[in-house]
Description:
Pfam families: MFS_1 (PF07690). This is Lysosomal dipeptide transporter MFSD1. GO terms for molecular function: transmembrane transporter activity. It catalyses: L-histidyl-L-alpha-amino acid(out) = L-histidyl-L-alpha-amino acid(in); L-arginyl-L-alpha-amino acid(out) = L-arginyl-L-alpha-amino acid(in); L-lysyl-L-alanine(out) = L-lysyl-L-alanine(in); L-histidyl-glycine(out) = L-histidyl-glycine(in). With 442 residues, the chain is mostly helical. The protein folds into two domains: 1-186, Up-down Bundle (Growth Hormone, Chain: A); 202-423, MFS general substrate transporter like domains (Growth Hormone, Chain: A). The chain is built from 15 helices and no strands. The two termini are 37 Å apart.
Amino acid sequence: MNSARSWLVWGVGAFAYIAAVLHRSSLGVAGPAAAERFEVQATLLSTLGAVQIGVYAIMQVPVGVLLDRFGPRVLIAGGALVMTGGQVMVALAEELPLAVAGRVLLGIGDAATFISVIRLQSGWFTGPIVAQMSQWTAVSGQLGQLLSTVPFVWLLSQVGWTLSFGTLAIVGAVALVLVLLLVYDAPPGGAPTTGSIDLPEGWWPRLLTAFRQPGTRLGFWTHFSLLSTTNVFLLLWGYPMLVDGLGFSSGEAAGFMSIVVFTGMVAGPILGVATARFPLRRSTLVLCIVGLVALVWTVVLVWPGHPPTWLVVVLVMALGVAGPGSTVGFDFARTFNPLRLLGSANGIVNMGGFIASFAIMPIIGIVLDVVHSVRVAGGEDVGLYDWEGFRIAFAVQLLVLGLGFAMVVRMRRITRSRLREEGIEVGPIWAALAAWMRGRRG
Length: 442
Ligand SMILES: N[C@@H](Cc1c[nH]cn1)C(=O)NCC(=O)O
């Protein structure tokens, strides 16, 4: 445990996740090329992006159950294989249906990767470092996001569709080979990581056991509240909002997107240390981040006229913190479930943010359409992606943030009452802060 080999195994798992995020975000940045190749509207392509997110969300429970049955090595390798196949199909596709089938395979393989790497680190690491490892894994995925925005866009412009997507397939194949050669579920002699000792027989009772654990549901609502607003911004609506809604150039919009990613890369490790250091205060941290994101969005949306640039910077930084904030959800699952249920528990948690993203993405599109039609019918000469439309459409996110906040409060009350039964009392935060201050003075 916690050996050089642990880091090597985790590093290969993280590489497989970087490749998965690179596959995931590659179509988003290839919009104009895809629209030209398949002769379809950009809006149809963005709908396909949402479908991929939907496939990812639906696959979380089956993948989590398989993870508890077969372990992370099989799932990460299987995910890399399916994604490589999917990317080959996208690379060779001349017609849209083959590309869509390829993207569905990418969604399926992608779904298997993150929760398997999170599960892998629990087999190889022990102690407070495990809480930090989840953030490091998530941060490494952000590298995949960055690789898709600059190097992949450049490659696409240089060598065209087939070779650039073919290169991504090769990256996936390299990940597959490395996983097969180097990744094992646990060190030799380590605890068996699959099987059914002390747990009910069958996948359904085990899934229910994971779901009934309030800590799993606290993780679900944490992920639900915090991932969707960042996902929706990065994967679909952020770019049109910045360029068409607020009038920034495409280069400036790319800069704002990068701020989200870089802020996440800084905030992730800090949150990892905080959750490891103060495990009984994780939900307070989550509630503070949900409150911050809701507050910043509210100020942006009610600002008279266009929000100033500094406020947009504050917004993208808040979104950058929300991404790693959602990763805290997996830490709840880890600490409240036995290792052999962790796959199912992580699958449940990971569904939260992707269900919310899948719901909000089309709702924002529909609200934009409705607002545009009403204004045009009223004689106004405005575009579909006018800021006034975004102002109303993005307010939908406040409902998700409000629901998420309320559910985190509710689930933490239930979780804390269970802890109380086990003799662990979590007092109010101000009492803990006062005791900490007294300790420092004394
Ligand atoms: N918590 C996120 C990842 C993230 C985003 N920003 C920082 N961390 C997550 O749940 N990811 C799941 C996945 O499959 O990418």
